[in-house]
Amino acid sequence: MQNTLTLEDFQTAAKHIAPYIRHTPVMDITLENSQKAVLKLENLQISGSFKIRGALNTVLSLSKEQLEKGLVTASGGNHGMGVAYAGSLTRTETSIYLPENTPLQKVKKLKSLTPDVIVSGAVWDDANKLALQARDAGGKIYIHPFADISVIKGQGTVALEMLKDAPDLDILMVAIGGGGLISGVATAAKLINPDIRIIGIEAEGAPTLYESCKANSLITLDEITTKAGTLAPRQSAQINLDIISSLVDDIVLISDAEMKEAARWLWNTAGIATELSAAAAIAALQSKKFTPPSTAKIGVVICGAGSDGFD
Predict the structure, then answer these.
(1) Number of CB atoms found within 10 A of residue 100's CB
(2) Beta bridge partners of 302
(3) Which among 49, 68, 101, 139 has a CA at the least distance from the CA of 226?
(4) Which of 99, 180, 269, 272 matches a 20 to 30 Å C-alpha distance to 218?
């Protein structure tokens, strides 16, 4: 599939969602190994992560007739929060399916937004099957967490903001779950600056897109062993693989222990409370699994808040 997204697509999405989200700040930080980085603090976003961007861009584009049918999705937690927030904003009944590895804190938070939260299945793919069944049985509008062009446009607004606030970045590092965030960020960033390098970070226990890019074909993992649930689909989607394989310069794999260490470092050093996935890029830098050129200016998307790095 040819990627035909334009910069105007992302700019339109940004205008669409701007009244309802935060333009999150950036901050400079120096890591333990003296590496400097610019952090985009999406952990401070409404709903606690970047996911509200794609969810809102999609839900706000629905007609009144579509909204009357209700919304349904499956999520590792953050996308569910985004869709639930969008449902609350538009006064739309919303059903959220979560896998059993979702942190209890996120389950409780979701239930405060919508009563229809169903926890079932070992991983996201299992919960997603149930969400699709609910869509087929009840006619609700299904909001995919990553394989949706409207969602990808919304997630790409992260890059618009970050490159406005830090326009001289040479490298942008983004965690990969299903691939929606990096698909949007990579596309928007390279439309602004074709020379910028995009580095993806995946969990060793869920190398879904690492393996898919290596095979040049969608791979379904036999098992998920990471505790970073928001980085843990067994399979991505073709739309994401096509974008990532063409625009992402490298994918780095890191361990749960490295993410946990990075999450604790972010809290102890800067008071930034992140989930494991949000510490992934910091983990890649501090472990030296990714070593940028000494003169490169590095940007890191801190994609979501959480406390699972301390569990």
Answers:
(1) 13
(2) 41
(3) 101
(4) 99
Domain boundaries, the chain: 7-50+148-310, 52-142
pLDDT in tens, 275-301: 999 999 999 999 999 999 989 999 999
Q: Name 254's bridge partners.
A: 203
Please determine whether the domains at 7-50+148-310 and 52-142 fall in the same fold group of CATH. Answer: yes
Asked if 174 and 148 touch (Cβ cutoff 8 Å), the reply is no
What pTM was estimated for this model as a whole?
Answer: 0.95
pLDDT in tens, 217-262: 999 999 999 999 888 899 999 999 999 999 999 999 999 999 999 9
3-state secondary structure of 39: strand
Q: Helix (H) and strand (E) counts for the chain?
A: 12, 10
Domain 52-142 classification at class level: alpha beta
Phi-psi region of 157 (alpha: psi -120 to 50; beta: other; left: phi over 0): alpha
Sign of the C-alpha dihedral, residues 173, 14, 83, 217? negative
Strand pairing category for 94-98 and 71-74: parallel
Domain 7-50+148-310 has CATH 2.160.20.80: no
Structure tokens given for 13: 């999405």
